[in-house]
Amino acid sequence: MGAHCCNHDSSPPPDDKYRRILWIALIVNALMFVVEIVFGIASNSVSLLADSIDFLGDAANYGISLWVLALSVQIRAKASLVKAGFMATFGIGILIHAVWNLITGVLPDAQTMSLIGLLALAANVGVAVLLYAYRNGDSNMRSVWLCSRNDALGNVAVIIAAIGVFGTGTAWPDLIVAVIMASLALTAAWQVTKQARQELHHV
Question: How far is 54 from 65, CA to CA, in rounded Å?
Answer without folding.
Answer: 16
